[in-house]
Design brief:
Blueprint (H helix, E strand, L loop, with lengths): L2 E5 L3 H13 L3 E5 L2 H10 L4 E5 L7 H9 L6 E5 L4 H9 L4 E4 L4 H19 L7 E4 L2 E4 L5 E3 L2 E3 L3 H12 L5 E2 H9 L8 H18 L4 E4 L3 E4 L3
Parallel strand pairs: 1-2, 1-3, 3-4, 4-5
Antiparallel strand pairs: 6-7, 7-8, 8-9, 10-12, 11-12
Bound molecules: calcium ion.
Calcium ion (CA) binds next to loops.
Length: 228
């Protein structure tokens, strides 16, 4: 039975999610504040975490950061704020996905299935062509190390995933929706801002410091990866 940790301080919502997810056949544990969440995660290995961002004791962002130091368990953030910067911060801390409250339970269930499936896929991923290169840029898909001309480049989880996808599809113009779908794992109509934000992060970490041009804007389409 797959285990899901629900971190939510609104008790009624937490209880509602617990009942719905138990009905779907998941084993559930609840935590009602940030500290309890970190503790529950440490003593109860789970397959996925639903994490509210606005929490007493420790914020959801901080909880996410602490859990990510130890574990790559899928994390779906729940946020009441329709604030892109908040979501981006959570994604930066390594969360896999987010839902803005209020949400339809069916959509959450679908996102949970996607996150669990993707994680299972990651675990059995083949071990060939594990190092991608483009000029002096090197990306190791196993160790998740990135370097340029031997200089290590520190990327967050999503930045790495985005760069990996771009490198696997070099010389192909990719739309924002496609990037959102393939890298973030779902179609999220209208919120392609996240893609632009992450492209900007990658350019700041690769194109600018090494004075190269890897990520090209394709007007009216999206982005294209190639070394100029
Ligand atoms: Ca809350």
């Amino acid at each position: 039975m797959q285990k899901i940790l629900i971190v939510e301080d609104e008790r009624k919502l937490a209880r509602y999610l617990e009942l719905e997810l138990m009905h779907e056949g998941y084993e559930i544990r609840l935590a009602h504040d940030g500290r309890a969440a970190v503790k529950a995660h440490a003593e109860w290995p789970c397959d996925l975490i639903l994490l509210d961002l606005m929490l007493p004791e420790l914020s959801g962002i901080e909880v996410c950061r602490r859990i990510r130091q130890k574990d790559s368990v899928p994390i779906i953030m729940l946020t009441a704020k329709d604030d892109v910067s908040d979501k981006v911060m959570g994604l930066d801390m390594g969360a896999d996905d987010y839902m803005t409250k209020p949400f339809a339970i069916e959509e959450l269930l679908a996102r949970i299935r996607v996150a669990l499936k993707r994680n299972a896929g990651d675990a059995v991923r083949e071990k060939d062509s594990r190092v991608l290169t483009e000029g002096a840029l090197k990306l190791d898909r196993d160790s998740r190390d990135v370097s340029y001309d031997g200089n290590p480049v520190q990327l967050t989880k999503k930045e790495f995933d985005l760069l990996e996808f771009l490198m696997l599809n070099r010389n192909i113009a990719l739309s924002r929706n496609e990037l959102l779908d393939k890298v973030w794992g779902y179609s999220y109509a209208g919120d392609t801002n996240v893609v632009d934000v992450y492209i900007r992060y990658l350019r700041c970490k690769l194109d600018d410091p090494f004075n190269i041009k890897l990520i090209h804007t394709v007007r009216g389409v999206g982005y294209l990866f190639k070394l100029d």
